[in-house]
Amino acid sequence: MRERAFFLVVVFLSLHAPALSSGSAYGQLPPQYQKWLNDEAVYIITPLEQEVFLKLTSDRERDLFIEAFWKHRDPTPASPENEFKTEHYRRISYANQFFGREAAKPGWRNDRGRIYIILGEPNDVQRFEAQSQTHPAEVWFYQDKVQLGLPAGFSLLFFQPGGVGEFKLYSPTRDGPQALLTSYLGDPIDYAGAYRMLMEAEPSLANISLSLVPGEDTAAMGRPSLSSDILIQRVETTAQRQVEEMYARKFVEYKDRVEVEYSANYMDSDSLVKVVRDASGIDFIHLSIEPKRLSVGQVGKKFYTTLRLNGLVETMEGKTAFQFDRTISLDFDPDKMAAASRQPLDIHDIFPLIPGRYRVSILLKNEVSKEFSSLEQTLSVPAADSGIQMTLPMLAYRVVKAEDKQDQPRPFRLGPHQLYCRPNRVFAREDKLFLAFQVNGLGPETEEKAEMRYVIQKSDQAFRSFTRKVTEYKELPNIIEEIPLADFEPAHYRIQAALSIDGREVVQAADEFDVTHLESVNRPWVHSRLLPPSADPFYDYVIGTQLYNTGRTDDAISHLEKAVQARPDSADYAQNLARAYMTKGEHQKVEPLLLWFFQLDKPPAYDLYLLLGRAYQELGEWDKAIDIFNDAVSRYGIGAVLLNAVGACYLEKGDSKAALVAWEKSLELNPDQPQVRKSVEAIRGNK
Question: Is the Cβ–Cβ distance between 609 and 628 less than 8 Å?
């Protein structure tokens, strides 16, 4: 068991230690980019950043990437100097000057140089000179690295095997106390015996030979601390982990959705995401993004910009539940531009979402300035039958009773009231704060027994509390509570709303806000989306698609059939219903659903050809399938997917010669198809 544990830890560390780039993609890089990747950024670049960098095809793209790489590590972007970049190159220079003396390779490439580049100067260094029983060693002590996800205090040990060459980073599990001894003839995995020998020779060194974390009592256990190896792994990945929550994560997530010219121009933004249940019973996601700046173009006296809003909603298991792409075109005359330049812009949007737990990722791109921003949030949409529920509160600075149609969902609409919410939730003392939320699942009898209790804290201290009977709110399940802020001192506040029934708290929700010292707050101008009336088949289509995407095919078919029945001329509606039929194995329903689109003057989309052809395949109607696939080729060009499908149909018909022709052509287009190549070789072998 000890040997197995030792092996697993060594494998774990070897998989996670920084590695130099290699492979054909690296070999094709011009020398200056090889140097940057392998000599300068090697310890701080994330594996995904490296992967993306190696896929770039031009020097311009690489230069933009490097610019973005440093820009998103800059602690003070507004200053002319990038302090992170300056400090990083200082550390490399220091490592080369002081840690390359004992070995032929430069200092940045040995263990001490690597750790120095990652963590910087240690708080204390304790050196152990060579003795008859111990190798030369150094103990680096670090503290105040909690912000990097490391312990408040910890040590790292370097030793010089044989007393010559470079110092190696010591691992209690991989090396053990025996590695620090000049001669140890005992059992290689007898850590306790080696520890006792080291304690006699050099007690200070022995004290950290089993654990690098102060206060961990490993001597009594007689074996090394696994937490020390985890610490080493976290140290090795410190720089990568710090950037993952900022630029690197965004770059990797959006590299397929953001063009390279956007990548160096990430702009910060505030965001707000809330869940509200409509009177129709549909849950909607209300979102607001407020970019820190709005860049525009100008033609004559006209100003303009085009914003793209891309949304991706994934289940916690990684399934794509919903995607959308919206274009927002804004035009200004000089007067409107002057007003817009003084006010921030809030982009408000809304979309329906079925119950579940999700990761929401929204990308906002400015096509004029090539800037992009994003928001990522985890949210839950509870099922309607899951008991009494309270939505997260919305904090509005203004509420207006809507005069337009109330059956058309729009962002931050609660019943008949339009809420004006801002992501940063900053209020002035002259404002009123409107606390708005929903309490769903209350029955008439429960309403009589229920009350809301509101507790406001100022800077974590009790400030105010009050109670309301639920029956005082006449528009249940919607609740709006008005709170004047005149006597609120400038500070940070937290407000909690708790529902109690017969004195027992059932649910509660909270949010935070700030009251500024300014006399007034500059409110944004809002671009808001309006959805179709709640009876529109659009909702059955979207909900049905989400159900299908998340694996609930039967429920999806029910909604999609309603959508298609209401709008039979929609190719999108029919396409998604056809996919659901195929998944369910109801292939015979696909032809009557899709064939109508093939009889129109305008040819159908590529996906409809593929769906109908595959339905014929599943039904064993090979000739019909071949005709559909060939028609798709004539309209959309030759592709490996279509050729593979044609080949499969010919083989089922018994025409292996025609199948071979199709598959050989497919391999010419894409040689990396092992299964197709195997089928080709099987046909050739039977000749």
Answer: yes
- What's the CA gap between 659 and 49, in Å, rounded? 42
Claim: this prediction has a pTM higher than 0.85: no
pLDDT > 70: what percent of the chain? 92
Record the tokens describing residue 177, joined without a space.
């106390």
Listed range (212-221, 431-440, 665-674) with the worst mean pLDDT: 212-221
Q: How far apart are CA 630 and CA 604, in angstroms?
A: 14
Does residue 477 have a cis bond before it (omega within 30 degrees)? yes
First to last CA, the chain: 55
Do strands 124-128 and 137-143 pair parallel, antiparallel, or not at all (unpaired)? antiparallel
Tokens of 17: 């230690």
Using the predicted structure, report yes or no on whether residue 15 has a pLDDT greater than 50.
no
All structural domains of the chain with their residue ranges: 2-240, 267-528, 538-686
Q: Among the CATH numbers 1.25.40.10, 3.40.630.30, 2.60.40.10, 3.40.50.300, which is that of 538-686?
A: 1.25.40.10
CA distance 455 to 463: 8
- The C-alpha angle with vertex 362 and arms to 314 and 390, in degrees rounded to 5, equals 70
CATH assignment of 267-528, among 3.40.50.720, 2.60.40.10, 2.60.40.1930, 1.10.10.10: 2.60.40.1930
534 and 299 Cβ atoms separated by less than 8 Å: no
Mean pLDDT of 212-225: 74
**pLDDT tens-digit map of 280-326:** 999 999 999 999 888 899 999 899 999 999 999 999 999 999 999 99
User: Which residue's structure tokens are 């000089």?
Assistant: 334
**Residue 582: pLDDT band by 50, 70, 90 thresholds?**
very high
* Pairwise CA distance, residues 448 & 655, whole Å: 76
Neighbours of 249 (CB within 10 A): 17
Question: What count of Cα atoms within 13 Å lies in the side-chain half-sphere of residue 408?
Answer: 9
Closest CA to 44 of 236, 239, 235: 239
Measuring CA to CA, how many Å separate 613 from each of 115, 170, 378, 434, 570?
59, 62, 39, 56, 19
Give the pLDDT confidence score for residue 21 in this predicted structure: 63
CA 364 vs. chain centroid, Å, equals 15
